[in-house]
Structure formats: C-alpha cells, structure tokens
Amino acid sequence: MTGRFTLTTAILLALAATGARADAIRIGVNEPLTGPFAASGTYVVNGARIAADEINARGGVLGKKIELVVEDNKSNPTEAAAVAEKLITSDKTPVLMGAWGSSLTLAVMPKLADYEVPMLVETSSSGKITTSGNPFVFRISPPSALEAETFAPMVAKLGMKKVDFLVLNNDFGRGAATDFGKMLKDKGVQVGLVEIMDQGAQDMSAQLAKLKASDSDTIMVTSAVDQLVLLFKQMAALGLKKRVITTGGSQNPDQIIAQAGSAADGTMHLTTFLPWIPEKTPDPKATETFIAEWKRRGYEFAGVTESFRGYDGIRAIAHAIERAGKPEPAAIAKAFWSVDFTGLNGPIRFAKSGPAGRESGQSKPDVYLIEIKDGRVVVPTL
Amino acid sequence: MDQLIQHLVNTAILGGTYALLGIGLTLIFGIMNVVNFTHGALYTVGAYLMYLAVAALGLNFFLALPVAILGGLLFGAAIEILLLRPFRGQDIDTTMLVMIGAGIALQSGTLWIFGGVAKAIPSPFPEAPLQIGPVSVSWLRLFVLGAALALIGLAYALINRTKLGLAMRAAFQDADTAALMGVNVRRIYTATFAMGSALAAAAGALLGPVYVVYPQMGGLAELKAFAIVILGGLGNVTGAAIGGFILALAEELGAGYVSSGYRDAMGFLIIIAVLLYKPTGLFAKAERIG
Amino acid sequence: MSPILSVDHAGVRFGGLVAIADLHFDVQPGEIVSLIGPNGAGKTTAFNVMTGFLKPSQGEVRFRGTSLKGLQPHEITRLGLARTFQRTSVFADDTVFDNVMIGLHRQGGRMSRAPLLDALLGRAGASERALRERAAALIDWVGLSARAQERAGALAYGEQRLVGVALALATEPAMLLLDEPVSGMNASETRVFVRLIRQIRERGITVLLVEHDMPMVMEVSDRIVVLNYGRLIAEGPPAAIRSDPAVIEAYLGQGSAARRAAAEAQGCEAQGSVSEAAHA
Amino acid sequence: MSRLLPLALLAALVALPLALGPSPYLLNALIVTGILTIGALSLNLLLGFTGQLSLGHIAFFGIGAYVSALTSLGFEVDLGFGYRIVHEPWPAAVGFGLATLAAGACGWLIGRLSFRVRGAYFVIVTISFAEVVRLVALNWVELTQGPLALTGIPAITLGLPGIGTWTLRTKLQNYYLVLAVGTLCWLVVARLVGSRFGRAMRGLKENESLALSVGINATRTLTVAAVISAAMAGAAGSLYAHYLRIIDPDVFAFTTTVSMVIMVVAGGKGTLMGPVVGGLIFGLLPVALRPVMAPEAQWIVYGLVLIVILFVMPRGIVPGLADLVRRRPARPAPVLEPSPVVQR
C-alpha cells in the first residue's frame, strides 16, 4: 500500500516540478496504471523511477537531470495513442518508454512515425512490433520467436515427446503458441492441443479437463502471473500431473510460490531475469543494487520480474541520450543503434529487424529455465 | 468418458457459484427494477473483505466468511440509502447510470486502496484433491458448493417463509398496492438491496479463496450474472439458480468439445437462442395482463 | 345491407378462464351500437379481439367483409377500424397538436414512395404543411383549439378523452370503437360528448361503444348488445333492453352500485337527465 | 433560440482548432471525443427516441471498424469446403461506405429482435450480441488477426474524378472530417425526429398500444431506427479505425458502450443536443482530470460527476438547463426539446 501512495505522491511531485525544472531532460513513460494491466504497469514505472533516481544521483545525463513524465494509458489502445500524443507534443519529451501490452504499443507506433520520436519498448512481445517497418521502435523484451529460439537447445534435454498448449487469447499467448509450436515441430516434437483462455477468466477447469485427458507429456502455458496461480491451483484440484513449462516472462515465481503454494511445485518457467540467484545474472552487482533499492522502497519483491524492464529501459534510454549528445528525437533515435551495455538480463544492443531501410531495433536478452522446488526457485540441472 | 464425467463434476461446482452470483442480482432486478451495475463491485468488495479478515486481521477462515457477508450487507444498505433512495421514481435508465457511476467509483477505489496486484486468500482445506475414480474435486470447491447451496436455500426460505419475504414478494407484484396494504416499501427496498449485495459479497468471499482477488474481478462476473438472471427470468430465484447451472454446463461442454476460444460465447449464444424462443426467459412466471 | 362489422362466434380463453364465449353480433353501417354488461363481462376483451390486440381462440371478426384473422393492430387500423382506450388515451408527453400529428401517421404520405428519404432530404415540406392544416382542423372540430400547444398529459381527464377521439379520427376510420369514453366526466362534459358522438356519425362513421354510464348509453344508442360472463344475453333497441329480464337479473346479481345503475337505467326515461352513477 | 444554439456550437467547433493553436494533443482528444459523440448520437436515436436501450451498441461501432479496416487492407479467408475468399485492398473511402452498410445490416437483425424482446431482455440480448461479435473477432484469427490486431490501416482518402485525391493524414484534416460526419449525423437525426417517422418513434415510446391503434407499424419503425442508428455507429467505427490506424478486439469493449450511454443520458436522452453536450463533457473530462490527480482518482471522480449530474438534473444536462433558463421547476416526465417539427 505504501508503494501506491509513494507513486501517487511522486506523480504529483513530478507534475508540480513541471516547468520549474525546464533544464531537465524529460523522458515520457506511457504505462497502464489503471485497468486490467494496472499491477504490471505500476511495477514497470517503479523500476523506471529507481533507474532515474540512480542516474540523477550520479549527476544525470549530459550534465542535466532526467525527469520522467509518467502517464496512465488506462490499459486501452486509444488512450495509449492519446498519451503518446500528449507526451510528444505537449510535454515535448524527445524519447518515450512504453507501453507494456502489445496492442497498446501497436497503437502508439503510428504516432512515433508521425512525429519521428523514438520509443523504447520494454515489455510487449508481439512479433509485429519490430517487423512492420517502424524505425522509431527499439525493443528490449524478447518476442516469442526469440524466446522459442533460446529454448530450443533445452527441448531434447527435457525429453519432450508431445506438447499441448494452454495460452492466453491475445497476441502474447497466441504468438507463443505459434512460435513455440513451430520450433517444437522442427525439433521433431509432436504438438497436440492448443487451448485458449480469456484474459480475466478465472475458471479454466473445462480446458484443464480436456488437457488432462490428452496423451501429451508436457503443457506449455503462456499467461500472466495471476492466471498462472489459478491454473496451478486448478490443476492440483483436477489431479493433473504433467510437466508444465510457462513462457512469456510475466510469471513472477515468487508470487506463484506465495499464492499457489505446493500446487506450483515442479513447474518450470522460462524467464528473462534471475533475481533469486543474483550471482548468475550477467551483471551481479547491478542486480543486487537494484533489488536492494527495490526492497528499501518497500515494494513487494514479487514485482522485480516485471520492474527490471522499466529499470533497464530507462538505463538504455539514458545511454542513448548520452551518445546522442543532445536531447533531440532524431539524434536519440540514431544513437539507440550504438547503445551497448549489460542490462540485468544480458547485453542490451539493438539488431536490425523488419523491412530494409525502415528497420526497428531488437535486443536479444538472456532466457533462463527455472524450476519451483519445495517452495524455492532453483535452476534445474539438465 | 472420463473427460465427460470430469466436465459434469466441474459443471456442478461452477454452477453453484454462478447460481449464487445470479440470485442476488435477480432479487434486486425483479423487486426494485434496478439494473444493478454495482453487483460486480460488491462481489469484489466481498472478496477483499474476506482477504482483510483472513490475511490482515488473522481471523479464522470460517469466522471471516460471515464478517465479509455482513460487510456486503452494510455496504449494500448504504448504497441503497445514499444513492438509490433519492432516485426513486426515476426511470430505469437513470438509476442504471447511477449504479454504473457507483460501480466505476467502487472499482477504482479498490484499485487505489489495494493496488492492482492480485491477492490470494489462504484456506484451511488440504491442497490434495478428493479423488473418486477418474474424477478429482478440490475440498475447498466442495465446501464452496455446499456453502453456496446453503445460502441459496437460506435466501429461498427468507423469501418464501418469512414476513419480510412476503412483503418483498408483494412489492415485486405491485409496489403501489403493497404500499396501500401497509407494507413499508422504502424499508423493503433497502432490505432487498442489502440482501442482494450480501449475496454478491458472499459469492466474492467464497470465490476469493478459490481464485485470486483483484480489482477487476467483478467485471466478467457481473456480465455472467446478468446472463444467468435473464436465463432464469427476472426476479425468479429458483430460475436464477437453475440458470447458473445451465450456463456452467454450456461453458464446460463448449470449451471441452467445441473450442475453448468460444467458451464465453457459449453462454451468450444460449441466451440469444432462449430469448428468441421464449422472450421472457426460461422460467418466467406469467406476467400480468393489462 | 351487409354489416360493416361482424363478430362471428368469437371466443377467448386465458388458460382455463373463459373471457368471451361464442360472441356473435353484427353492426350495420351508420349505426351507434353500445356494448354493455357488468364488470368483468368481457367488454374490453371483445374490443381487444376486434382491434387485433388479442387473438380469438375460436371464431373470427370480419370488417367490411374482410376477415381480421392474423392481422396486426396497425393493419386493422389501416383497414378503417379505429379505437380509443379506456385509461391512457393520449401521448402524454407531447402537445395536443403533436398528438394529432402522430395520429395522422398514415395520412398524406401515400403519394411518395420513399417517405423516409423525403424526410432526410427535407422534401416532405408540402405534405407536412397539409398535415398541419388537417391536425388544426381536427383539434378545432373536437373543440380543443385553445389547448393545442399544451402538453396532453397535463389536460383535464375529459379533455384527454377528446384528444383520444381526435387521434382516432385522424386515421380516417369508417368505424370507431370507443372504450368507456365518458367515465370520469362530469354531467356537462358527458352531454357535450354525446353530441360529439352524434356528430361523428354524421361524418359517416359507424360507432360502437363500451360504456357503464347507463343514461348516456340509453340516450345515444340505436341498438344495445349486452354481455354477461362472456356471453351475449340480450340484443336490441334501448327500450327493449331496459325491460329485458335477463339484463335486469345480470345487473341485480352484481353489487349495490350496479343495482343502482340498473335502477337508473329503468328510471332515466322519466328523469331525462344524465347522471354519472354507474361506476362500480 | 433553440435553433441558434446548434449553429452557434457548430461555429464554435469549426473555429476551435484556430483558437487552440498548435496543440495536437488537445486536437487528438477532440477527434476521439467527436468519434465517440457520433456513437452517442446514434445511440440516442434508439435509447432517446424509441426508448430501447442497446447495451451492445459497441458491436455496430466495432463491426464498422473491422469492415472498414479489412476492406482497405485486404484479406484472404478459407471458408472450408474448398471455398476461399481473396480480397484485394480497396480505397478507405469505400471501406467507410461498406462499414456503414454492414453495420446497418446488423442493425436490421437487432431491430427485428427488438420487436420480440423488450426492456431488460433487450438490454441483455444486445450485450450478448456484442460479446459474441467480440469473441468472433478475437477467435477468427485468419480474417481478423484476432488479438494480434489489424495494423497499418490506411488513412481515408477522398477522391473526386478529375480533381485528384486528398489523403487525410493530419490531425486538422481528421478533425474536420469527424466534425463533418458528426454534423451530417446530427442533421439526419434532427430531420428524422421532425418527420412523420420521428413522430411514429415518439408515439411508440410513449404509448405503444395507442401508437399501434393509429396505424403505426411498430416492427418497421423500430427496425428502421435500429438500422439508421447502427449505420451511424458503423460510420463512427470506420472513422476510428482509419484515424487510430490499428484496431484489435478491444474496440468491442463494454466500457465504450457505457461511455456512450453516459454521454446520452447525462446530456439528455431524447433531445437533439443532449448527446453532443454529454459527449463533449464526458469525452473531455478525463483529459481535464489527467494533469490534476492520480489515475485511480480520475476514475472515481468520473463516476461521482456522473452521479452528481443525475442528482441535480435527473433528465440530463440539456433539459435541466432548459428548465433553468425558463425558470420553472423540473417536471417529472421528460419533455422533448422543441424540435423542428413545431414550426418551420
């Protein structure tokens, strides 16, 4: 609860400070703070604030402080586009970060092209974002095809023969089913059922009963953490005992352990961040500092798997501004191509993606397979 | 075959909770002619009260349940007195909009207070399910089904066996005549709304531990509750209970044998079909003529 | 001369309850006929059957030789059979003038094949002007010119009845069914209304009315049809009905108010006055 | 007076962008508000003038958006049994026309339905219809791309043979396009309401039996109203798709219908100006609240403002203000705003 009030106060303070700090470099943050994605959006913003404060404590960028202009897109594509418009034209932010969900990001993208302002995409997974020829998009989260590619070498080691999917009915879930399905078929693994569940659905027993009756050995699940908790509980209630691997990076194993209890035991998760074992992350020191600061601010530990993207996103933007030498959209867009540093989940540097001449930037983060064992997160030995 | 049996068992479990959601709404709809768009928010409030009682106050699970239901009762009474009473006599659209406004405010209020992160309510039941042959059922969900059926029975008895229930039924038939016969219609309305709200809160408090608790949980629940109410016929408590089970069956079989993507569509398709075949719902009582 | 309206062995049942049983009578063009009977005798049900608001369970109704079987109320109106209503006889939220304009719905637009398109393009101006004139004339005819721009729901009860009549006349009917037109009117209003009914007949419109006010019925009717418990028990000119034993029995069987009504029906010839006693 | 007011408002709206200067953000808010207001205008035709509350109105809006987007993007669908439909992209303006027609056709369906089920049942049937359409848009991935969204929807191009084409890319162009379509829709509603047809709708709403008895065909009247209303909503949906340039099944969100209902009822249902006034207030309220308070609080205020308006002016803002101007107490029954019927 304190977290919420801190955020509110911070927003009010940020608003009050508008104008007073005209010399600060402003970064627009376009996230869902109300509506269905409110929890995740808020975590990302919290992470972004930690990064901004850290950068400012070290003297800022180009000798100036950075200032986040945070706006709520209400988990709604129309609002996301409107917010982008406001940030670019009325707050005059030369660079944006956003917008969590893929449909939100896709709605913002035409605005980026119109005003030629770059945006760092921190969470969205839809393949379309980096293949539609928008040269102002730079993404640090992996699209599912990239995630599937990273997972490929582990398939044989896990001994998977036939796989069913249970995915969220959105770009995130459907994209994962398509991309992982393709990869598995290439590896000679059979793909069985592809079951769909609605965002916000609470009772998946019908889908699970069907999966229980199938002859597959593994179920791959793509959804956000709240629904995963429900799924594991309902799987336990149905006596469904198959190997479960979740994908998508929104799993948050701590929340799963806390809320699903023993029902989550033995589940495996593909994740892009390892906060439980900082020493195994690419930059252990940064991970530790980030987690320490996160805890110091009184946020729930479970939020770090979401918020590190906000943290890395702002750090990447700061690097780009530094390299651009001036806080101007065109210069920053160009400078993104030369960003190269180690984020909390691997190197952040952008490779070209999409139609030639209008490529978007895509960074390739690390992907880890973890397992929940006796209420703790472990890295399975394969 | 095993799959079918499991689907049918699921139907029973799910249907009980749907029925509980439906009857609270049908009471308010039928007696007060109010399309209650706070039903989902009150369901959410019930779940959060349960969470507060169990997780924050450390109350016993079975003790927390009546606390949450009582909370819903008081919440409902307050909404009726503050927001509905001043609008008595306005048309149905106006009160509906007032309820929409209240629903938006309530939902955003819970988001503000509790944040968007889902909360889990611990339950005292064993994690391992009850296993009968190929079918498994969780103990918690069995308890929820039992409690839901008990609450439905209680509501039924209250309406059909008590003086208050008689007055409520009189108000349902014809509020003006009931008033002439000496029924305090204002008090009946408050009691009805409070009771409907308590049932919504009860559904939230019972389902909170089964699922997780978050501010938007009421949205889909509310739509389904409307569907159940229409299926059963306005103001018909028994009809709503049966409607709950029909909806659950349609969803289970739809998802199991047609396509899980269209799971939620099943219920709505049934509603359209039913209303085309019988425009007053499956179990509507004959309406007065004239 | 062939009858303008024939009720041919019509019957209506609601579940087990018989509202009308085997009702059979004719109305000749130009007549004023009254349908009377104690409360619950099935008079309004009979009206609803004749105007398509209820489907008879047996028999049928013919209007100008056409069977009304399966026709919707608005289709029956278009054949030239109009009606008024007992309780809500006006569009309460509209002005008297607009009420009659709504009543003129079917008039004056027949020359155009696409009235909707005309409305959208603003081409309906001429026919609208013609309708306005007719509305004003009708309102003037029922004597409400002074009230034309008032909200119909705010008018006195008797005046609302007049609006109802103007509405029904706006459909240019050949026959008009009036459902208890003078209930709730005082003596002088009733007298005016009786004159109006006669004027309606002078316009060439056949009138069938349901009414409780016996003196008024006796005064205005050419012929009376009496119903009891959904059955026709008597039919004939007022003088014959007044002395019909079955009719007296039917009314005596009812409460004291009805008995008074029957007594008044007996005595009104002597008094010659119109009273408003017959509301049981 | 009542005839000058719409003209004055129109003049103000035409001049507004000049006054706002270069503020694309506000212009964007106005465009989105304008599109929703067209939706509210169309909803008012059903809710305000026939008394039928459609809580599935967003279905027509969404169908319009999808038809328009798919017409201008092209698609390829396998219908099974070896039938394939391949559609090459057509100009966006054609999409706009088809969107209007398709939504109108769906309105015909709902209009036929509305004769069978009324009141609360009609409300639920329309909600169900909208949900089913949303789920089809979500799950028929081959046609609609489902949750993957339709992206890259082209801007509307207006073309006149011999003169050349004109693509509406800028905010200002879109603003005037929306304003033009909105004004046209308003005029259609005003004309209809003032005509024989409008009187039939009012008659049915106030006293259905009486209306039938004067020869008004209820089925036909309600169906025509539903078709026109749906077609307008479809047109609004098409504008939305070509303005935002991306749509996904979220365009069918129930909350958008709720916004439209709020605009109509708070503004004054059954009045010509109500939806416009309500649309401007509830479309721009979130914009005004955004810089002032926390996101959650904005929604709370939004809900409370709605309740307060209904409390003070139960029949809506426009009739409420009209009463104030005439200095007389509010009457219990709704009174139709003086419409062009009375004197021309």
Automatic annotation (TrEMBL), chain A:
One of its GO terms (biological process) is amino acid transport. Keywords: Amino-acid transport, Signal, Transport. Pfam families: Peripla_BP_6. SUPFAM superfamilies: Periplasmic binding protein-like I (SSF53822). Belongs to the leucine-binding protein family. Residues 25-375 form the Leucine-binding protein domain. Residues 1-22 form the signal peptide. The keyword Hydrolase does not apply. The gene is braC_2. This is Leucine-, isoleucine-, valine-, threonine-, and alanine-binding protein.
TrEMBL record, chain B:
GO terms for cellular component: plasma membrane. The keyword Acyltransferase does not apply. It is a multi-pass membrane protein. Belongs to the binding-protein-dependent transport system permease family. LivHM subfamily. The gene is livH_2. This is High-affinity branched-chain amino acid transport system permease protein LivH. Pfam families: BPD_transp_2 (PF02653). One of its GO terms (molecular function) is transmembrane transporter activity. It is found in: Cell membrane. The chain crosses the membrane at residues 12-34, 41-59, 65-84, 96-118, 138-159, 188-214, 226-249, 261-277. Keywords: Amino-acid transport, Cell membrane, Membrane, Transmembrane, Transmembrane helix, Transport. It comes from Methylobacterium hispanicum. One of its GO terms (biological process) is amino acid transport.
Automatic annotation (TrEMBL), chain C:
It comes from the Bacteria. Pfam families: ABC_tran, BCA_ABC_TP_C. The gene is lptB_1. Keywords: ATP-binding, Nucleotide-binding, Transport. It comes from Methylobacterium hispanicum. GO terms for molecular function: ATP binding; ATP hydrolysis activity. Residues 5-254 form the ABC transporter domain. InterPro entries: AAA+_ATPase, ABC_AA/LPS_Transport, ABC_transporter-like_ATP-bd, ABC_transporter-like_CS, BCA_ABC_TP_C, P-loop_NTPase. SMART domains: AAA. GO terms for cellular component: plasma membrane. The lineage of its organism: Bacteria, Pseudomonadati, Pseudomonadota, Alphaproteobacteria, Hyphomicrobiales. This is Lipopolysaccharide export system ATP-binding protein LptB. Belongs to the ABC transporter superfamily.
UniProtKB/TrEMBL annotation, chain D:
The lineage of its organism: Bacteria, Pseudomonadati, Pseudomonadota, Alphaproteobacteria, Hyphomicrobiales. GO terms for molecular function: branched-chain amino acid transmembrane transporter activity. It comes from Methylobacterium hispanicum. Keywords: Cell membrane, Membrane, Transmembrane, Transmembrane helix. One of its GO terms (cellular component) is plasma membrane. This is High-affinity branched-chain amino acid transport system permease protein LivH. It holds the Pfam family BPD_transp_2. PANTHER family: HIGH-AFFINITY BRANCHED-CHAIN AMINO ACID TRANSPORT SYSTEM PERMEASE, HIGH-AFFINITY BRANCHED-CHAIN AMINO ACID TRANSPORT SYSTEM PERMEASE PROTEIN LIVM. The chain crosses the membrane at residues 29-47, 54-75, 90-110, 122-141, 175-193, 214-239, 275-293, 299-318. It is found in: Cell membrane. It comes from the Bacteria.
